[in-house]
Batch of 4 targets.
Target 1
Amino acid sequence: WHYLCGVDLGWHDATAFSVVAYSFEQPAVYLVDCWSQSKLLPSQVAEQLDKLNAEYSFTSIQMDTAGMGKAIAEEMKMRFGLPIKAAKKTEKFAAIELLNSDLQCGNFFIQEDSPIREEWDQLQWTKDLKKEHPAYPNHISDATLYAFREARHYAWRQREQLPAFGTQ
């Protein structure tokens, strides 16, 4: 299994963490864990990521590095040796469509009691359908999208089934 973490930094808006897993043995992505918390200091975010990395040994951590996020990410990389990369934030709507497609096709799995379900139930778009409505939190959704975009589950290929040894 390959584990990825997405992090959406915030202060008043919550900092969100999302852990996803994929394997080249199947064409699916699994949301393993996600949550958010407001008013976390950068050192507290780093401690959480260090604990998670010890448990999952992340292939990469995708972090929102906009604004001061870049300095925070670089500090965490230096102090904790975390595999942090800048999250891809361009073409967000295309990435959302890919995730939605995987959900509909049964290639993205979440637990029934996952906090992301509640966020998705509330999340709305602006009237012009150009961005998410700012009155509704999207932090776990963004963190999950950052991690999902790094998953390579689509590289899965059906392996040729060889006959059992000794059969004709």
Target 2
Amino acid sequence: MLFRSEPVPGAIQLAGHPALERSAAFADGAFEVQDAGSQLLALLVGARRGQKVIDLCAGAGGKTLALAAAMNSLGQVFACDVSISRLQRLRPRLTRSGATNVQPFAIDSLADPKLERLAGRADAVLVDAPCTGTGTLRRNPDLKWRFGPDDLLRLRDEQQAILRAAARLVTPGGVLVYATCSLLAEENEHQAEWFERLHPEFVREDAAGVLTAAGARLPADAFRGGALACLPHRHGTDAFFGVRWRRPKPGSKQGAVAGTSG
């Protein structure tokens, strides 16, 4: 079985279509199957041991598991979602991985009192936002017939509501990462610019610098305006967008880090 290294530390890509999820190594929790772009988004969060991290749209928990592994099961990851059925898919993955620092956290809305108890306490928050999924068109070409302008408007409003809720959770000095699997500026750059107008206290950090320091090997064209912007035909991933902000501590003089890689 041939393989090559991915631009993400610790990731490999196998040739062909091996039945990985039927292998003994998979059953033993030695690895997870995940697009390299998703792994880059988890790496962009920069979760560290002992931190309190919130995956606000955790779904079945692929990125949650990557965050937990980066923390070596020290600290706590809250895997939040409004869908109990999606979170239930996370539980067997947690058992298989051996991660002990993840707390599945079902919420009934963004105003759930359980979520409010975490306000201002998170060292890092990941918003892997609901989106059109146009970044997966190479694998799901029928998507172009399943979404229309009204769907995009609905998702845009939902993304903004989630970002507003996420901002309340970040502690001073903490990090917020907004991500989509989308090709559309309306879900990506436009949403980042909207958030920065609403929350000028959050400072954008250069994704290229963060990921390079973490050991990722990506070309300059994988970044745009200081954000991660992977494309299938250039980088071998689904299309992913990711922007990272830091909420400075009171009295700090931290300034924005301009993106110079795209």
Target 3
Amino acid sequence: MIKNILVPLTGFECDAAALEAAYLVGSPFAAKIEGLRIEPDPMQIVAQAAVGQFGSSMGNVELIHALEKLGKERTARAERTFGDFVKRHAAISASMQAEEGNPLAGTTREARYADLVVMGRAPKNSELATLDIGSLLVGCGRPVLLASDKPAESVGSTIAIAWKETAEAARAVTAAMPILAKAKKIVVLTASESSADEDAEMHPAEYLTRQLAAHGFKAEAREVEPGKRSAADALIAAAHEAGADLLVMGAYSHSRFRELVFGGFTRQILHACDLPVLMLH
């Protein structure tokens, strides 16, 4: 069961999309939605200023004051967005807390006590942007749902599972079980990567559909041929073709350092996927 959903708030437009996605996922479970806004504390602001001074004409003190003002403005926007959300969905159980601290460390700490974390796609170089989402995934031990920027009518009605025989993918499927139980359609997608896959008696996707059937879930298996596309682009396209409104996948089968340096499936999905994505490391 999903009983409490944490929604980290950034003060950007993506907050509204994250809250709506949390509502759509959490409503069937009567889950409580907990908004969290962590405004950078003085130490964080000084650190930001030290980095930002190289690209700014402001002096250190002036830049620190500007960053402090910006943080408070984002907090005010986050509170307004959350207030508007609660007005639209007055029947839900929801609360919000705002505090000062390290946004990534504080969010990671709070996420460990949530059944699910739902986040929007914050702009680059802002708190909890895509790079920080990767750190949160690795550090919190909880499933993270990255909401789409586009307004969604449903999340989890048709679910595509990006399946690969890794521990991370297996954990992601287990974490998604409550949502899978509510789905009308489940499609398991795999991209063939070796001749061993082709020679096996049963394709990995078919193994997973059999395991899901034991839980009473009817799922279909589809093999994706990347062709000249990357595996990530091919799977995103296949998920769209299946009519999916949620993609489930494991995150960072390789180390994050390797993915940052050489690129990788998770990194591509974080940057390129326009569907809501449920991930677990």
Target 4
Amino acid sequence: MATRFYNREIETLSQKEIRVIQLKGVQDLLGRVYHNSPFYRAHLDRAGVKPGDIRSLEEFAERIPFMSKKDLVADQTDNPPFGLRLPVPESEVRQVHITSGTSGKGQEVYALTAEDRRMGAETFGYQMTPAGCEPGDISAMLWPVATMAGGLIAAEALNYHGANGMLLYMFDSKMKLGLMKRFNVHSFWATPAYLTRLTVLCDEAGIVPKRDLTRLKGIFLSTEPFPVEWAQRMEEFWGSPLYDLYGSSQFGICYAYTCDKGVVPNGKHGVYHLLDHVALVEILDPITGQPVKYGEEGEPVITTFSRRGAPIIRFRQGDRVRLLPPEACDCG
């Protein structure tokens, strides 16, 4: 089967072409925030950097300091609710994302403009298209839709890409399953832990997915890791491929996704494709701060140059990933 692309031109760019886009993106971002955000102007002034000083991605990495959650929380605590880093007028804010957590004091706040919301919704197309989603498909949203980024962006993405989105997150699990069977959904969105729960409840509800969900094309996951064996069991039980998205409130987008090969092609973990044209992701050794080589593990450090409302610059994500070369996946 030929690879399904959402935007073939973008998804098959060379590394050289990607770096041109990223350099222009970070240069525009630095100029924008320096002139419009007191927080970032002070951040760059402390580093002795003016926007025009950055002429390469290497200079960007060498001269622009890291940011941390602590920096962002301190800014918004001293200057509620958005902090001084907001580079647009509050009149342009159209949505707010708050990071998860039990204490409001440790939660980051991200303000989105209308363009940020559109961009966030569009990025989900890079995951939905490989799964075979088409306009009019019925897609059940089981992720919570509240103040956290994932559910808000995904719900908007369903509308943006022409799906018939069913927001079932507020119902109990058995009612969710009943409605999914009644409408014979084409896809649904769940966390790995919740998919396990639904699998158990299918027996109690008398639902056999291969019999009752005959149109199921894909199950979309996010937020949690999972072993290969679990994924294989789920694909067999539900009769559908699993796909996974990697994102964060800091990004406000799906910024890494599995292609049409799904999460466990050939009996092993699949790879995730970065959306390099909307954000810069550096994979660095967490101790030395230097870029890792292909095949090595490192920490993602992210810069959201496409985001207008609450961009972040060289934010240490704290996760652990393994950087793979472009040819690690043969989808193209």
